[in-house]
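The authors assume throughout that readers already know how a fold can be written as discrete tokens. Each protein is reduced to its one-letter sequence and a matching series of backbone shape codes. I therefore recommend that a typical entry be quoted early in the introduction. For illustration, here is how one protein appears when written out as sequence plus structure tokens:
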Amino acid sequence: MAQKATKSSEEAKPRLAETAMVIASTAAPAPSWFTPKRLLVIFCLINLINYVDRGTIASNGVNGSRTTCTDSGICTAGTGIQGEFHLNNFQDGVLSSAFMVGLLIASPVFASLAKSVSPFRLIGVGLSVWTFAIVGCACSLGFWSITIFRMLVGVGEASFISLAAPFIDDNAPTAQKTAWLAIFYMCIPSGYALGYVYGGVVGSHTNWRYAFVGEAILMLPFAILGFVMKPLQLKGFFHPESKKAVTAVETAVEEVQGADTYGISNGKGASYSMKKDMRNSTLQKSSKSKVASNIKNQISRFLNDMKVLLVDKVYVVNVLGYIAYNFVIGAYSYWGPKAGYNIYHMNDADTIFGGITIMSGILGTLAGGFLLDYMTNTISNAFKLLSAVTLIGGAFCFGAFCFKNMYVFLALFAIGELLVFATQGPVNYICLHCVKPSMRPLSMAISTVSIHLFGDVPSAPLVGVLQDAINNWRKTALILTAVFFPSALIWFIGIFLHSVDRFNEESEHQITTKTERSSTTPLLEGKKMETTESVAEP
């Protein structure tokens, strides 16, 4: 009897290996055709369009102006959104910040879902919502309708901002990680600047609504791409489809082994059939409790991850400095053209501010990334660079607004923006490398939510209120620019904190066996999974 059982077991091995290979080959995803550089280009284009929208709604051509009347009773009709919907400066500032509501709610959700859903599918969903919301902005009928659609724009953006940077960080060359991040974040000032020009041209020659229609057309192909392309893997996580493949193989192993075992004791396999029926019945009864348990586990995991972030001194100091920095940058981006028009009587403020921002943004952002790589990309060096460029750049911007000559202002302001934009690569490098790989999406999501919630979101309406109160754009600009100095001080403190680069640390979501470790390798490297070989080994 024992010899017969041994013989049956040996005969089962080839069948077991064959079954495993068939299931693994059909379930495991093939490597994506994307190379790292192609992925970087696609993410940069998406980011560019996203911030073109930010610049567009702030441009004089789309945002417009209120109806004004002189003491003699002569009135000038309002233009753009502000003129058509009769918005005051506070309402106009709220409109620029409305996206934050959607971003605040959706960012943690998308970051958490990345652990169980293909990240690129999530980006596809988000960009589809973004496209729909932009079309809604073009069709809005008043202040509340366009505000609601701007909130949905934030929902769409949430899926992208928390996942794009980790993908880029995974696949960038080790010695050029900050430079690649800088190229990606270069699209922020470039997008704003192009949005100023784009909105000014479209709004002044046609109607402000057409500017939004054009944005939706540009984003639609990328939304579709998120659904049709092969899934991409993110360091620190199971790939969802890979996980299904491994589970399917394990199930097949159990069934084959079970069939052999019970086939030995009962030639007709009656016991195996009974066990299978009982298992199916048990699974059906426990399905509801499993769903509730999964939701509870997701919430518990999110809260634990949030606790880890909030007690990480390096992360908190970095984000606090970023908030103060973004408070100024956000107000510059929204009120800059109007301030320039009123202080220096620029007839083409959209184009001038757009030109300065795009040149300073591109050169400054790239310079900051390459400079940190040259210094050796460490967290401590990143803090040194952040504090230095923000302090010096803030001083140049502050000095620029002190001069009455427009050309002196433009020269000093361009140098100042060149320096302050050098922060984009280093600040996001810290966010990605001071946490474990599995926490990077949440780290980026909370960072983005924080800099908007406490930075540029309140700064736009608060600057509007300040300007309404003192009615002096030069003083308003000087008060705003002074916030750069606390930002530099906060980042300076970060230099003295104990910091550890956690990029290569294992996380609770990573796999330690040969099979599981291979499944976390980014598809961009074109490496095939070793699931089949690992399962088939005797």
